[in-house]
């Protein structure tokens, strides 16, 4: 199927058995909706969109950046996409407003192909115990096609209570889209399409399905709790998606704390020299991973991030050593980012521990400045792996991080503005940044497996 895509008629025939489960309007069951909500509170359609201003901001007149009233009606396609996006990413929304199967604003990772078909097919999970093919009335897969397991009585839905495919079709929110007004023709405020099926409102009620214990095939996870007893989906964080997320998105953390998505593992198992590699990485390139999702602060979206990164891997006897090298390089960069942020505070303030404020722009710039070299060095390691080569790569990465840290310190500490700052304090902070015996620099060398320099010579007191 990957190399011989079906024609449109074949695809249409294949989807026909489940077509009725995807009706957005009508008298029967509706796609990702609860048809038993007649008479509930009515909401304007823009509330389906996660990044539109919430009711509180409108009441307090604080919708400064994303204004109210921009989205008043949607076409059927945009309505369906907005509904699916909300159900799939459902953030915390107050009492009874359940989050998605993966929590609020999860990260999704997809292997990128040269076309839409290859991208989709590369991320289809091979599930030998999936049972019989899906049909439209299969409520275990499509929960809106039967009695919905609401959580009004705190009922939990675990993987034992449904088909594994429900991971893609979770129903944490109880929503009913109001039918388009007949005879009204207009333009969709989201995509600009002309239509006579404009939707302007929906009804909603709390206590949709409450999920627990699910592992979504398209999300990376990390362990939490006593002895890593709980697995939680990773979520985008402030600063965007950079190579600091490479560990856990492309390869598992050798320390056992983060795990790549199942689709990535499956692709790697099939991504061997031959037709698949040639298709996804022509001309000697590398397959790429696309990571994206909302950065949520409870129900408030701070940003939507997306980014791509190469899938670099190695097989055979060097696999464990390669993954350890990659993990060490990421962790060394994280420690160096913390180190330069701290030293900037030491340069600028008498009591740096008491200083609050967001200095994440410094770490973001460090990752941005070293990203190309990170992938270059990893690719070099994967291509010509040897103990001597890896030792050289570790040392080169250590030097690169130090050089970038120096430049960032100079930019943010104002060390060159002698008349504006405490010069002695800034100079001491500069020394601390590169002090080989500092706790932070020892950690950096530890992550990279670089031995400490010779011990300090004791100064004899006169």
Poorly predicted runs? 456-462
CA-atom Rg in angstroms: 26 Å
Largest sheet: 3 strands, antiparallel
- Shape, per Cα inertia axes: globular
List the total number of helices. 12
- Mean pLDDT, all residues: 89
Strand content: 5-15%
Outline the secondary-structure elements.
Blueprint (H helix, E strand, L loop, with lengths): L7 H8 L25 E4 L10 H5 L16 H14 L18 E5 L3 H7 L33 E2 L16 E4 L8 E2 L6 E2 L5 E5 L4 E2 L9 E4 L5 E4 L12 H4 L8 E2 L2 H9 L4 H6 L7 E10 L2 E11 L8 H30 L11 H24 L3 H27 L9 H12 L4 H10 L14
Parallel strand pairs: 3-8
Antiparallel strand pairs: 1-7, 2-12, 4-7, 5-6, 9-10, 9-11, 12-13
Helix pairs in contact: 8-9, 8-10, 8-11, 8-12, 9-10, 10-11
Outline of the structure:
The protein is an alpha+beta fold. It is built from 12 helices and 13 strands.
Characterize the structure shown.
- The protein is α+β, with helices and mostly antiparallel strands.
- The chain has 2 domains: 20-105 and 130-211, no CATH class; 221-448, no CATH class.
- 34% of the residues lie in helices and 12% in strands.
- The protein has helices at 8-15, 55-59, 76-89, 116-122, 246-249, 262-270, 275-280, 319-348, 360-383, 387-413, 423-434, 439-448; strands at residues 41-44, 108-112, 156-157, 174-177, 186-187, 194-195, 201-205, 210-211, 221-224, 230-233, 258-259, 288-297, 300-310.
- The protein has a 3-stranded antiparallel beta sheet, with no helix packed on it. A 3-stranded antiparallel beta sheet has the order 2-12-13.
- Strand 9 (221-224) and strand 10 (230-233) form a beta hairpin.
